[in-house]
Design goal:
The chain has 9 helices and 19 strands. It is of the alpha+beta class. It is globular, with a radius of gyration of 26 Å. The protein starts with a strand and ends with a helix.
Length: about 425
Amino acid sequence: MTTDIKLPELGENIEEADVLSVLVSEGDQVFKDDPIIEIETEKATIEVPSFLEGTVSRVAVSAGDTVEVGQVILTLDASEDGEPQASTREEESRPAEPAGRGVTTAEPPPEVTAPASSPPIAPPPHIPASEEGALPVFASPSTRTFAREIGVDVRQVRGSGPGGRISDEDVKLHSRTLAFAGPTAETVRPLPDFSEFGPIERIPMSRVRRTIAEHVGQAASTIPHVTLFESADVTEVEEMRSRNKSKSEAAGGKLTITAIVIKVVAGALEAFPMVNASLDAKRREIVLKRYFHVGVAADTDRGLVVPVIRDVDRKNIIDISVELTKLAAKARSGKLSLGELQGGNIAVTNLGGLGTGHFTPIINAPDVAILGVGRAELRPVYGESGLEPRLIAPLSLSFDHRVIDGADGARFLHWIVDALGKPQPLAFEG
């Protein structure tokens, strides 16, 4: 039995991925759950497993290709044992259904190219691509005309219909979002021919880098950022860190100032619920979150990623240091899962290791705030007995002024400064 294996659903809002490597060849025997290709999405590197057992009769993709969800990856000559699992050909292109709704014919045609039960996920041939090399737009001519009439770029609209088809209502919602959030259109001017001035080299942007550029560009242009700067006395924090780092190492972690800041930030979110929120521009509502997940910006060879530590309020600093160490290692190796990159409420970015002081971090939407940590330095500070050396760390808080007023942002940052200046010993192990 010949069966196509297609790229399955990869997560919310992920419609395509780049093929990093193909792990099988024609003639290879593949078992269920064996990895067949390695892909890079907007957020992570993933190995895609086979859903069936059989022999590879055709490989439909190559390293460097961009594949869409539902696109054929390879074709298997399935074994007899694999035949009952042929329903996965339907399951890859739609939500899971109860068992027994798979194969409906006892004997499939000799060559399965476009079976009725598994239509290829592709636009009708009469719908042109929106631009050279871009994905087609799933919208009727009347919807396209309507979008032009009200000044909406239909390519920027997220469709809610089957296969991402765009309706008039989707266009209206997009238009209302733009009106509420402010202008998002980006004027792109052609670059000069730099080769006229000297030798140049062009390198393609990776999917991660393209995603970063789009994400931070949109955040910077649509979110009214306000950045406040403070300095925190972390002398006692550093002393506690030194006393507890061996406990962290014994547990498999590395105790850094970042782990301590994460714990403090979670406490600040509890004290200031408006910072633990997101703006729903479509519905003109503020979503208050009753959980405390903190994202941590990680610098990797592939670009910036933000893995998330969940339920920080329930974990002590040693636990956080261990989890942070593991996430950092996975980030560097490109092995973070999609789940580990989603669900954060606020982000912490630490550039202190690079010698940076104050800076203006860009909010990781849909968060409404991000805390930047710079390099701590010894400075003379007046105390009760006169001048004394104290370890001072620069902090930078950027927040969304649509949700957080300046005074509330200042109170949030001052809370963090005070907490770092008076660390609680029980937070390390309690």
